[in-house]
Design brief:
This protein has 471 residues and is mainly alpha-helical. The protein has helices at residues 2-8, 10-17, 23-39, 43-62, 67-84, 108-112, 126-129, 133-149, 151-154, 169-187, 196-217, 223-243, 253-260, 262-278, 284-315, 331-343, 371-376, 389-392, 409-420, 424-434, 452-455, and strands at 95-96, 188-189, 349-352, 379-380, 438-442, 457-461, 465-469.
Amino acid sequence: MAALVLLGLVGPTALILRREAGPGAWAAMVLLLGLAAGTKPTLLPIMIVGCSFAVVISWIAERRLPWRPLVLLGLSGLFLLASSFTLIGSARGSRLQFFAALRAQPYYQAVTGDRSIPATGGWFIPSVASGDGRMILFIATMVTWYLVTEAPRLLSLLGLSIKPVRRDPAYWWTGGCVAAGVGITLVLSHTGYSEYYFLTAVLALGMVAVVAVGADLARRGDLLSLAITASAGVLTATVLFLYWPVNRATNTVAGALTGLLLPFGILAAVGALVILLMNRARTAAAIGLQVIVLTIAAGLPAQLVSYTNAIEAATKPRPAPNEGSRTYLTRDEQDAMLWLHEHKAAGDVAVTNVFCLPARFRAGCAEDAYWVSGLSGVRLYLGGWAYAPANLAADHYETSFLTRPSPWPDRLQESLDAVQKPTPQLLARLKNQVGVDWIVADLPAGPVSPALDKLAVRAFSNEDMRIYQLR
């Protein structure tokens, strides 16, 4: 969804930067920035970096302060500031930490032995902070691999340096956005690896931009040489994909380097040879176009496999519900929440015993259950707190953000007591002082006291659920 919104920004941004925008384009830009603010916290920082690129390069190229990209930069900053008060709570707990994203990459844990929790540690992840030269070499290998795998998108930066496209300010903006998505991912650490949202947001934009750069550089006479280059890229990548030995259990730096970088080195050598043979004039524009074609073509075999797997998964008959899945909801649980959705009033609040997936609460469970409020639309006195800012921003912790104790232990205890050990005094306080209207009791989540039938009005029940209305 974030990628779709970022692609939607291309049209009005290009018109504005190219001085072709009318009032409609500016209006669309304001609406799209508002949509970006509410879609994902990663979008506006990416937009800000892209606009900053456009400002700096325009200033250098035109030798005067460019007001159009400056206005875009200011609008993006204002929307980011406004959204920071209400819409980016899940970003709490994020911090600057170089190379933290590599924790989730192949071989990292096996080679480094680092099993630290995301968003813990200092400015560098522990494997680098240790100062071990072997580990620093490994991280350098991982960073190189990461950048090489993003080359099909990073080649959009050629639009900043090669004639004639370098004169187009739209490429200044797209280059900044792609650089931001790829770069911020490497310098930010989030408790749930959400720094990768910066990368995923620019994947589509990077491909659109690099194809646009290639199209602007292409000439009709290039067709045969481009076809040969593309064929070389596809053939080499296919052979490597099918036959290159991969040891997924390797725990050595040499093994990781061989598995991650050597295939790309072979592809680069073949590509360089073919490009030099095909481009005797060796102009920057011709070489840049050949590199773009080779890189995109070399990515096709892996993309074809992924696309085939996706089609196969989409066309398979739907499997039977996995009742053992932690996210499985029974029909009775769903029916009860849909009933509550139909009978709630605006502003109603409920207390429940559902916080975790699977539902039964115990210390250390994964407290990311949101189906009660999600299906019913009723606000909860306390629901799953995994993404609560108070939980994500905790300074000292030894477990994942998914399994930390509730930041509001009093609310947790009162919620459990309201279902398991209710008293007239507790229910009266919840009703009169807190504003609770409903008790949503899930039997799979734990025991439900029979006393609730005397202390509240049973409004709905089935085999799995009891819903009570407070008097």
